[in-house]
Specification:
By secondary structure, this protein is α/β, with parallel strands linked by helices. The chain folds into two domains: 50-265; 272-515, Carbon-nitrogen hydrolase (Nitrilase/N-carbamoyl-D-aminoacid amidohydrolase, 4-Layer Sandwich). The protein has 20 helices and 13 strands. It has helices at residues 2-14, 20-30, 35-61, 73-76, 78-84, 91-108, 110-113, 126-150, 158-176, 178-181, 198-201, 204-231, 243-265, 288-295, 316-329, 382-385, 426-433, 455-471, 519-523, 526-540; strands spanning 270-277, 303-305, 311-313, 332-342, 347-356, 362-367, 402-405, 411-419, 441-447, 474-480, 485-487, 493-494, 506-513. The strands form two sheets. Strands 1, 2, 3, 4, 5, 6 and 13 form a seven-stranded mixed sheet that branches. The chain has a six-stranded mixed sheet with strand order 7-8-9-10-11-12, covered by helices on one side.
């Protein structure tokens, strides 16, 4: 009987919505119940503690490819908010948070396990997938622990606490992962789930994809607050208070959508260079077929764009052949290549885009700055955690732009090139925009053949759409085994080829040139940095802010 009394005393403390007075009275009432009933109550509370974070993880995983049930993102974090707000930090609660992080990453990142034809745990990247899930689950647990200590400082108002903690968590998780792979965890950002919701996505030019995540998390927090107020016995019939958090989130969401509608309504009609996407196959520089195909495009395009690593530049002879290729068409060429460059003690190998103008003049290279860890380069953790990389490349460090000239010899547009994985890093595009000659548009040479389930390709496409909005510059993509075509500066998909392999040259038309400015391109990740400062200030604050009783 003593055991049953202890359990029932704990039960009201676990409840999110009990006031102090009702808690004391509830304790007296519950201690008179039978031990059988009490045992059931204890187990039910423990089950809820463990289930809440897990439900949030499952809902959140459904928002990302391959499921792409993106509307769920607007309620997916409500169970997470409920778990963060539980009155007592039980073992089951934290165990549930850890399992939730593990389940989310193993489900959402399953394409890593099956990449390169992997089946079960026998694939070459299955070990990477499992270790990544374990490490990220520990980061989820740390984020959950921090959030539970910050929420009381906000008076339990999840409409404010949830967006602050979630955006800060995603930002810190991304940078904490650099300690392992030296690049950062760029996958599974809440904001990328809304890439198709263009009116909301337009605020990315103010705060990046972080701004979209902030709004979505705020709506989740408002929904939880409203339910909490209605379900709390201490509020009696004052259910009208439930409208307050909903109104706050509604104003922020409404303002975001109005801004997005305004941005989408602005004309971006200035036509730029005409780009033609070349078939995604390796170039045979001495092949008459390739030369004939290029010559047939003479006068029809200002720039011919190939995909990633379609030629290997091992000598000056190959560079001269590319010059002849550009001269034969009288059109500028941007070709994905693997090249070697002397570094004094040997050779450095780069994944690059080589650019020739219409006269065959070599304009330079862009070398890929964000290499794929454990595939293109070896992080320091590779010997401990992962098998050796299949190739060893060198990170690029320059951010060049290239000027196109029209048939009269005058400069028409300036473009910059990026390669594959670069697309997922907004910092690369911001650096390119800060150059002396800022690009009018971007071209992307990519190869995304690792994942046959098309999940990787959908994730990268969502990132590409946000890069276009964040910079207010169009992206032209030529992707082997991915989505090729044009993305305008509002994130709209134009002439995107539904097939994954280009079989013939494809004109995407004139690139729309956007001269609008972007706050995010200038100031970068100001929003997540601000949320981190607010989070730290809240954690060290000696007192709680007024509001509902803290969890």
């Amino acid at each position: 009987m003593l055991r049953s009394i202890e359990c029932t005393n704990a039960a009201p403390n676990v409840s999110r919505f009990d006031s102090t007075a009702s808690h004391d009275a509830g304790t007296d009432r519950h201690t008179s119940t039978s031990s059988t009933t009490t045992a059931i109550d204890c187990s039910s509370f423990a089950s809820v503690d463990a289930a809440l974070p897990l439900v949030a993880a499952v809902l959140l995983a459904l928002c990302f490819p391959p499921f792409e049930m993106t509307w769920i993102a607007w309620v997916a974090l409500v169970p997470w908010a409920a778990a963060v707000s539980r009155r007592r930090g039980t073992f089951e609660l934290y165990l549930g948070a850890w399992v939730a992080g593990l389940v989310f990453h193993l489900v959402a990142a399953d394409w890593i396990r099956t990449s390169y034809g992997g089946i079960g745990m026998s694939g070459s990247h299955a070990r990477s997938w499992l270790i990544m899930g374990i490490v990220n689950s520990l980061l989820w647990l740390a984020g959950f622990w921090i959030a539970r200590r910050f929420v009381p400082k906000c008076g339990g108002r999840m409409v404010f606490a949830l967006p602050i903690t979630w955006v800060a968590f995603e930002f810190l998780r991304r940078h904490a992962w650099t300690l392992i792979d030296e690049t950062g965890c760029i996958w599974f950002q809440l904001g990328t789930t809304q890439a198709n919701f263009l009116p909301l996505a337009q605020i990315a030019d103010l705060a990046g994809v972080w701004g979209v995540a902030f709004v979505v998390a705020m709506v989740n927090g408002a929904i939880f607050d409203a339910v909490a107020i209605v379900a709390s016995p201490r509020n009696g019939h004052q259910h009208d208070k439930a409208w307050t958090p909903l109104a706050i989130a509604g104003v922020v969401l409404g303002a975001s959508l109005m801004y997005g509608a305004w941005r989408l309504s602005q004309p971006v009609s200035q036509p730029g260079a005409t780009v033609c996407l070349m078939p995604t196959a390796r170039i045979r520089l001495t092949s008459p077929d390739d030369t004939t195909r290029v010559r047939a495009l003479a006068g029809r395009a200002d720039l011919l764009l190939w995909s990633e690593a379609v030629v290997e530049l091992g000598s000056d002879m190959n560079v001269n052949e590319l010059r002849k290729l550009a001269q034969s068409a009288g059109t500028a060429c941007a070709v994905g290549c693997i090249r070697a460059q002397s570094n004094g003690s040997g050779f450095s190998k780069y994944n690059s885009v080589v650019v020739m103008d219409r006269n065959g003049i070599h304009l330079g290279y862009y070398d890929k700055t964000c290499l794929v860890p454990w595939k293109e380069f070896m992080p320091w953790t590779a010997p401990l955690l992962f098998p050796r990389a299949s190739s060893e490349l060198t990170h690029g460090w320059r951010y060049p732009s290239f000027a196109l000239k029209n048939w009269s010899g005058h400069r028409s547009n300036v473009f910059a090139a990026t390669i594959c994985y670069d697309t997922c890093f907004s910092s690369v595009y911001r650096r390119l925009l800060r150059q002396r000659e800022a690009p009018d548009f971007f071209v992307v040479a990519s190869r995304e053949s690792a994942d046959l389930s098309i999940t990787l390709q959908r994730n990268i496409l969502a990132h590409a759409r946000f890069r276009a909005i964040e910079c207010r510059r169009a992206l032209v993509r030529n992707v082997e085994c991915g989505y090729s075509g044009l993305i305008d500066s509002c994130g709209r998909l134009i002439n995107i080829d539904p097939g994954l392999i280009l079989r013939a040259p494809t004109l995407v038309g004139a690139v729309p040139i956007d001269d609008r400015s972007s706050l995010y391109a200038r100031f970068g990740d100001w929003l997540p940095v601000l949320t981190c400062f607010v989070l730290i200030a809240g954690l060290v604050a000696p007192k709680r802010f007024p509001g509902r009783s803290a969890p």
